[in-house]
Amino acid sequence: SQTIHQWPATLVQPVGSPLSLECTVEGTSNPNLYWYRQAAGRGLQLLFYSVGIGQISSEVPQNLSASRPQDRQFILSSKKLLLSDSGFYLCAWSLGSGRIVNGEQYFGPGTRLTVT
Amino acid sequence: AQKVTQAQTEISVVEKEDVTLDCVYETRDTTYYLFWYKQPPSGELVFLIRRNSFDEQNEISGRYSWNFQKSTSSFNFTITASQVVDSAVYFCALSPDKLIFGTGTRLQVFP
């Protein structure tokens, strides 16, 4: 069966510090991978998605970036955090075929980031 | 424009009551999918259902049922005989390709 891991679970970082959140998927090959952010009391905003190694699409301009160094690894980064980066970050995967398709996505446990 | 509206921000019910969560969507695509996800207090989103735009049959899964009506662009979710464990935030989502989420409805079920 497939599982998705995210770490860390919680993170408190000062403004201006770097960020690295990691997501890995097990039990599937060539998945589509996604990063979402959920601000307090709000819906999910798609930040990035990837249909393959090294292929990243950005949905929202911001000071965050994403990378996919391996097939089942997705990393969310920032060089300098802003207060507005606080939120709940969720990684998700779906069956992939080299393009985005409208299949169901499966979510990881999330990382709660507080920027102080 | 693609959009999902969940007008109910928060609903409170007492255990064993039936409750319906509303979802209205906007899309110009003729082929699309609709989803419901549950987000319990732990935070992880749990997939509940996917329906395609060509299948308007209502679906029932235990105490859960879904009513899809293209004429009103709605995909409502009903929980019958609610339980405390149903307390969560529920998201409706639309997918022509990427998922577009509504803002969610927080359901609180009191014993």
List the topology elements.
The complex is a heterodimer of chains A (116) and B (111).
Chain A: E1 3-7, E2 10-13, E3 19-26, E4 32-38, E5 44-52, E6 55-58, E7 64-70, E8 73-78, E9 87-94, E10 106-107, E11 111-115
Chain B: E1 3-5, E2 10-14, E3 19-21, E4 24-26, E5 33-39, E6 46-52, E7 59-61, E8 64-69, E9 74-79, E10 88-95, E11 100-101, E12 105-110
Parallel strand pairs in B: 2-12
Antiparallel strand pairs in B: 1-4, 3-9, 5-6, 5-10, 7-8, 8-9, 10-11, 10-12
Short précis:
The complex is a heterodimer of chains A (116) and B (111). Chain A is mostly beta strands.
Span between termini of chain A: 38 Å
- Quaternary status of these chains? heterodimer
Strand proportion of chain B: over 45%
Order of helices and strands of chain B: EEEEEEEEEEEE
Radius of gyration of chain A: 13 Å
Helix content of chain B: under 10%
| Unreliable runs of chain A | none
Mean pLDDT of chain A: 91
In one word, what is the shape of chain B?
globular
Estimate the helix proportion of chain A, in percent. under 10%
Count of β-strands of chain B: 12
Q: What class do helices, strands and sheet pairing of chain A give? A: mainly beta
What would your notes on this structure say?
The complex is a heterodimer of chains A (116) and B (111). By secondary structure, chain A is mainly β. Chain A has strands spanning 3-7, 10-13, 19-26, 32-38, 44-52, 55-58, 64-70, 73-78, 87-94, 106-107, 111-115. Chain A is 0% helix and 56% strand. In chain A, a hairpin with a 2-residue loop joins strand 5 (44-52) and strand 6. Chain B is an all-beta fold. In chain B, strands 2, 5, 6, 10, 11 and 12 form a 6-stranded mixed beta sheet that branches. The model of chain B has no long low-confidence stretch (mean pLDDT 94). The chains are: A mainly beta (116), B mainly beta (111). The interface between A and B is medium-sized, with 22 and 21 residues.
